[in-house]
Amino acid sequence: MSLNETVSAERVHIGFFGRRNVGKSSLVNAVTGQALAVVSDVGGTTTDPVKKAMELLPIGPVLIIDTPGFDDEGALGELRVEKTREILAKTDIAVLVTDAAAPMYADEREMLALFSARGIPYLHVCNKADSLDMVPAAEEHTVWVSAKNGTGITELKNRIGSLAKTKKNDRFIVADLLSPKDTVVLVTPIDAAAPKGRLILPQQQTLREILDVHGQVFVCQDTELAGTFAALREMPRMVITDSQAFGRVAKDVPDEVPLTSFSILFARYKGNLRTLVSGARMLSELRDGDRVLISEGCTHHRQCGDIGTVKLPALIHKFTGCTPAYTFTSGGTFPEDVSSYKLVIHCGGCMLNEAEMAHRMAAAAQSGTPIVNYGVAIAHMNGILKRSLSLFPDVLQLLS
Questions:
Q1: Prediction pTM value
Q2: Angle between helices 153-163 and 24-32 (to 10 degrees)
Q3: Residue 3: its pLDDT value, please?
């Protein structure tokens, strides 16, 4: 991904769903104007979700997702259906494709009901309308099209565009906390888990926002923070650190300088900070054997000092004196039911779009299971949670 490309988490995710051989892939190709998906008369040609990041007028940056048929059969079919359900969790706009010449099946009606139950904006697209003697007029949620001859495709794209969630222009990572020429220090530890030759995504996005409001940025590792402060002519507006360095960084940042983390900023950005701060209390109540789910939104090679599987369990043991039973998940894997866990600890979610993060938060809420993210948890266990929330008085009230 180039630095100028819109990241996946910020794109509108449009998922195409349907039974086998209803023409999902042909419709995706017609909508995108590209040979994105393999097309065949053989049912079940699409065996895994196919994703394509692109610009789609009139919407803008989108991620198009073509899914396998949800009526697939056999052991492999069950796995493909499960993949389809994972895609549904991150879908901003759902498109159910059916055969215009066939009656609706029960599982198709169930899928529409599922869209509604999850609050996902959707369209029901009756494909192969060229086989009908008379094409019905479009309805609120229903459009008749022909991927084969292009009939109705422009209307479909416009209808999808009308459903697209306009990205809130009042949502910021940090820009709303700054004025032009404010100085911000970013602390970005470079260890074995850091990606080679680049900053991680939340660091990139935060840096860009600061520059966009004409702020001044100093970037250093935690080991050089004291020297950075010595070089500054005046105290910075704030210090933002990678969560895993919270404890060390707090010792070098003067008390009068606000200190927070990328993880906490992203929790606020995605609208989850209040819930995650409330979940931090459960860390003090953990006992030996309690089940704890530690989940990451991205998939990466685990390092020997991995924060999720190594550093967090060690910090929890140091903080509580006990040894919970951990389950670790990553990428698109997240249980629908987390009621068997005493606590869910989630990463900052920078690689997850708003829909998927909201789905995971809802799963925890429905199960009655507290959820906290890495940044909030680490700040709490280092005794600096109140300090890390000083920039957000409304959230700080939760700790009083």
A1: 0.79
A2: 80
A3: 41
